[in-house]
Design the sequence.
């Protein structure tokens, strides 16, 4: 098992008004989004994860994407500082859930002018964490995060994000030195030491996957990525993400995962 616990938040009806800076696929259907989220939770549980489900927040359309206002590791957690004003309040609202699993000495916060969103934070092996320098995460945020991570023996490396929303919109780590890559990260010198699993053209959305240790959860409907993962020894489980993709969300965005 790579992680045993997850925190999620049920989407509110307002999810239909979530931020859409990239997808341009129309508004989500709330009932379908709710079903997809419930199926996602069920799949996590099936794979041995204990899931804590937080209640919906009607005033915050993007609040089901719990990975952005917080970053969690086994030994510390960081309340981030989302770049968009509409998501600022989520910082306060996620903190009580974090406090149930971490003590005060393990919880830190990113403060302005720094911005940091969890979608840009990608841990790999050997206490190394890549962080995307993106439209949502700035250098000041990365600098603050680096100092926090260093307290726990972790090294942070910044990676420019130019074509996608977050770093993990373009690459996710599968473990065993295997890195799913798409778009701007294919053959990227930043990741030259990894075994790059190159996502086929047209299937970029499916680069955002979760390796639970008991199998990889991937978005449904991407046969090229499914084949790529299985050829590299991973068992795959598909999750429908049609409604969350409409508001720039991926699989990793929907949960905080830790031990």
Sequence:
């Amino acid at each position: 098992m790579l992680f045993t616990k997850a925190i999620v938040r049920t989407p509110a009806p307002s999810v239909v008004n979530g931020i859409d800076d990239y997808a341009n696929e129309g508004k989500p259907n709330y009932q379908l989004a709710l079903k997809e989220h419930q199926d996602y939770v069920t799949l996590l549980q099936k794979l041995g994860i204990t899931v804590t489900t937080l209640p919906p927040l009607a005033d915050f359309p993007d609040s089901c994407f719990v990975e952005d206002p917080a970053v969690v590791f086994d030994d510390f957690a960081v309340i981030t500082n989302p770049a968009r004003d509409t998501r600022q309040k989520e910082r306060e609202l996620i903190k009580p859930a974090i406090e149930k699993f971490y003590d005060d000495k393990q919880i830190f916060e990113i403060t302005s002018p720094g911005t940091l969103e969890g979608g840009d934070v990608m841990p790999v092996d050997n206490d190394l964490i890549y962080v995307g320098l993106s439209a949502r995460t700035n250098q000041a945020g990365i600098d603050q995060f680096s100092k926090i991570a260093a307290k726990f023996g972790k090294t942070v490396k910044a990676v420019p994000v130019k074509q996608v929303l977050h770093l993990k919109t373009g690459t996710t780590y599968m473990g065993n030195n295997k890195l799913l890559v798409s778009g701007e990260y294919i053959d990227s010198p930043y990741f030259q030491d990894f075994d790059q699993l190159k996502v086929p053209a047209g299937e970029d959305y499916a680069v955002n996957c979760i390796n639970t240790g008991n199998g990889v959860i991937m978005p449904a409907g991407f046969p090229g990525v499914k084949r790529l993962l299985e050829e590299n020894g991973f068992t795959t489980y598909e999750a429908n993400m049609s409604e969350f993709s409409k508001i720039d969300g991926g699989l990793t965005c929907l949960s905080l995962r830790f031990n």
In short: The longest strand covers residues 128-133. Residues 96 and 102 are 10 Å apart (CA to CA).
